[in-house]
Write a structure and sequence with these properties.
single chain, alpha+beta, 30% helix, Ribosomal Protein S5, domain 2, globular, binds cytidine-5'-diphosphate, 26% strand
């Protein structure tokens, strides 16, 4: 499925067979792949491919606060830096962070803060650096999801993971997980996120036109999609520890054999 080419939006966002332009059903997510521990120099990291989106998140913390005047004597602070690379979208994006990136960084930080025990880390900072390498709609949700995973990978105590997805409306129908073209040409976009420890919504933004019935339908669809995303996050974390366990077993076998590979 091609990425968006400006001003070339199709008139219809459903095909004749009733499927969406990329072949999905209304309640279907794009393919999602996640991996943790992908950046050696960070305390924690994760990589996510979600449809055409490709996003890295790297975490440092707890560590000293820079600039120092931002430090809070009674708690740690969480700072999020969401950035889209210049080549991540069809039209060259200016390298300097714009208003959109600052806003998205802020909403992701607000959304992740409730799951951290910041009160246990006075005068320190946790920093999350998010790099969107390829963007195709829903990057704030994908970034929130991958950032939560990177925090968990860093071994930072968390009340739970956070998962996020956008629900939208295209050609009068409510759909899950808008692609870039559906985001631009559709009628509504409702990114949301959930903190699993209390099952509360920690992000809810809205752009477009929906009635109350459609809004309720959207939140119902979001619940099912968020559960699937949460499962994938857990799988990605487990995968890392299964690999570590295998490595440990291999090392201890080698030690039992006097460190010599007998094969
Ligand atoms: O990515 P998200 O849906 O969270 O945020 P958005 O501001 O609604 O942007 C929707 C999509 O527009 C992005 O995912 C990109 O694919 C695209 N976009 C773009 O082409 N150029 C930009 N400067 C910003 C966004």
């Amino acid at each position: 499925m091609p990425l968006i080419i400006k001003d070339e939006y199709p008139e219809k966002l459903f095909r004749e067979d009733g499927k969406r332009l990329d072949g999905r059903k209304e309640n279907e997510l794009r393919p999602i792949k996640m991996e943790v521990g992908v950046i050696k120099n960070a305390d924690g990291s994760a990589y996510l491919e979600w449809g055409n989106n490709k996003i890295f998140a790297a975490v440092y913390g707890p560590r000293d606060v820079h600039p120092h005047h931002l430090a809070k004597p009674d708690r740690g602070i969480l700072r999020v830096f969401y950035r889209m690379t210049t080549y991540s979208v069809f039209e060259r994006k200016k390298p300097a962070p714009g208003r959109r990136e600052k806003e998205i960084s802020m909403v992701i930080a607000d959304c992740l803060r409730p799951v951290l025990f910041l009160e246990l880390y006075p005068s320190t900072s946790f920093e999350v650096f998010i790099e969107v390498m390829d963007a195709d709609g829903g990057t704030r949700c994908a970034s929130t999801t991958v950032a939560a995973l990177a925090l968990a990978d860093a071994g930072i105590p968390m009340r739970s993971l956070v998962s996020s997805v956008a629900i939208g409306k295209i050609d009068g129908k409510i759909i899950v997980d808008l692609s870039g073209i559906e985001d631009k040409a559709g009628e509504a976009d409702l990114p949301c996120a959930i903190t699993w420890f209390n099952e509360e919504i920690s992000l809810l933004q809205f752009d477009g036109d929906m009635n109350l019935k459609e809004m309720n339908e959207s939140l119902d669809l979001a619940k099912d999609a968020l559960k699937l995303i949460h499962e994938k996050q857990n799988e990605a974390l487990k995968c890392k520890y299964i690999e570590i366990q295998k490595e440990e077993e291999k090392n201890s076998q080698e030690n039992d054999n006097g460190g010599v590979d007998l094969k």
